[in-house]
Every structure is written in C-alpha cells, then in structure tokens.
Amino acid sequence: MSLRPEIHFSSVFDHCSLNNNFQCFQGNPLNRLNLHRKSLQDIVQHSQSRFLPYRQLKVLFNQEKKQPVWLTHQFLFDNNNTEHKLTVDQCELVLLGISSQSLVDRSPVATSEPTKIDSETVSKFFLASEPGPDEYIYFAVSIPPSFADKLPGTYMDLRPLLPQLSVIDAAVCGQGRALLDWHQSNQYCGKCGSPTISLEGGTRRKCTKCNHTFYPRTDPVAITLVIHSDKEHVLLGRKPSFPPSMYTCLAGFIEPGESIPEACSREVWEESGVVVNTNQTHYFDSQPWPFLGGQLMIGCYAYATDETITLHDSELEDCRWFSRSEIADMIQRSRNINLDQNDRNLRIPPPIAIAHQLIYNWYSKI
C-alpha cells in the first residue's frame, strides 16, 4: 500500500474514516529482507538497530507522546544500571525490517514506498553491518515478565490502543504482535512435541529433534456484505459477544479446497440462511488482522438470490436487512471515537475494521 509521506503519522482512525480504500494495518513501510536473514548477530548489536518491546503481546507505549517506545541495543541489553541485566537469549526476537529513521524520530518520510535494497547493498550490509545513515533496523522483542516493568512506558493491548496510533505505527505494531504471537504458540513441535527454536530473524522455527520446519501462518477470513436484490438493503448480523447494538458483515474462515466466493456463499448460508450467487461475488479489499493468531480479512460483496433469513445455529443472536437510511445513522455513530461502548443505538464496527469500509463503500458508491 503506497502512502503519501504526509499521512504516515496521521491518526489511523481518522485516515480510515476519510479513506474507505485504506484499511488499518496496511501501509507498512518496512523492507522485510526475507531473502537475507541468515545471520543476525551483527545487526542485533548495531548502533542503528531499534527494538520495540512487548510483554505478553502488549506493546510498550509512551502515553505522553502517543507513540510506541523504540529502544537501542545499548539501553535494552547493555545497560549496566539495571538490577538484572537482560540478554538476547532471554527474549523472543523478530526482525521486522529496515526503513527510514522516521519511525523513531517522527521526521517526514522521504518516500511512500518501502526501502529498496539491491543485492550488492544487501551483501555489504550483512558483511559490514552498515545501513544507510538515515535508516534503522527494526525489531520486535518479547520481554520476560521479570524485566518488563523496568522499561520506560506502559504496556498496552494493541486493539484498544489503535485510535491513538498513527497509520505507520499501527502497521508496524501489528506486524510485531502477529509474529510474536505465532512464536509464542509454536514453542513445541506439532509433529513430535519437542522444543523448537527460532531461526532467520523469526521467519521460521525448527524442531530440535525431528528438524521439522514451521513458518508463520496467516488464516484467510472471508468477510461478506450481502446486498439485497433491491440494492437498498444489506444483511448484517450480531453475535452475543458483540457490544450492545453493534451489527456487522457476516464472516468466517476459508476452508481447505474453497475459493473465496465459495467461502462467502457457505458462511452466509450457514449463519443466516440467505443464499448468494457465487458468480456475483466481488472482491473489495483485504486487511491484515494481527489478532487471534494472525488473519487476513478478505472483504467481498455478494448479491442475494434468496433473501429469507433462517438462523441455523446459535452463532448469531440476530440477523436482519438494514436500509440505506439506517446504515447512514449507524455509520455516523461508529465514527464517534468517544462513543460509549454501552450505547444502545444501532451501529457498525469503527473505521479501523474492514467491515466498516465495506459498508460505507456500499452506502456511498453502490
């Protein structure tokens, strides 16, 4: 996702509210260097490496500056003033990528594209460990509980923190959380049960006994806005766990052997009884979602051929057709960043969710 430099540090909530073709967690500027992660020792210790601490998947945040806390190797691992010295071996460390220093110093980003490094530069970089003078090497690091409280800042859950984050901070913090979550869930081999170790900057894990290799996974989710044949109503549902009066698009995991339209059709029918035409299912956009193990939300529109609602199970407590005028009011309420979560007026998810963008795009353009 290419971004204009001036919006990199704008509020992700505001930017999503104003741009329905942009999804929260898009816009990551880092070059992930996936092909060049064989040895990390030199760059971990490099003076231009920066580390974003997490504790139990909560990110370290400076509430006064309203930005994540990036620390140097010297501060994190070589600080002799700490009561208990932290070592790299005590942490789960993930290389996020390389990019401009602007993530830390908040200066304008010179380019809207990720940093591009040719093979010659990469070779020099890993041999001489010398990134450009205006670049940092970014890591996410999981801090052990015994040391976590010694660092400056407050550990905060990423999801409720999103309204305070910038576009880029949301994307990078999401990347770090998703990868650390995967590592935390794969400490042992799924084939033989032996411990696994992290390799190549956290891009894979390997079993210490059977040598089976594991790679970070992303689970695809089909999220569908079903449009009535009159084109003036859309189908939304709510689960019992939702905040009061919140309705959203129907969604579910794509199963093995399914195409995206087939998954949309199956999930809509299973949850609501409504039948959609797979030949009239259209892709809208996708959103990386760094929660629940790491998901990719694939937003689609589908047109109903049988609009009768029949709830087949208890997954949804309600499902109904909403008119365009009702949707207008629900959009307005969902864009109130100070909305009381116990408010009983109907609303949809906030702009940082792709469901909101699906609904708003239908309301404004279709």
TrEMBL record:
GO cellular component, one term: cytosol
Enzyme type, top EC level: hydrolase
InterPro entries membership: NAD-cap_RNA_hydrolase_NudC (IPR050241), NADH_PPase-like_N (IPR015375), NudC-like_C (IPR049734), NUDIX_hydrolase-like_dom_sf (IPR015797), NUDIX_hydrolase_CS (IPR020084), NUDIX_hydrolase_dom (IPR000086), Znr_NADH_PPase (IPR015376)
Enzyme Commission code: 3.6.1.22
NCBIfam families (alphabetical): PRK00241.1 (NF001299)
Name of this chain's protein: NAD(+) diphosphatase
Single Gene Ontology MF annotation: NADH pyrophosphatase activity
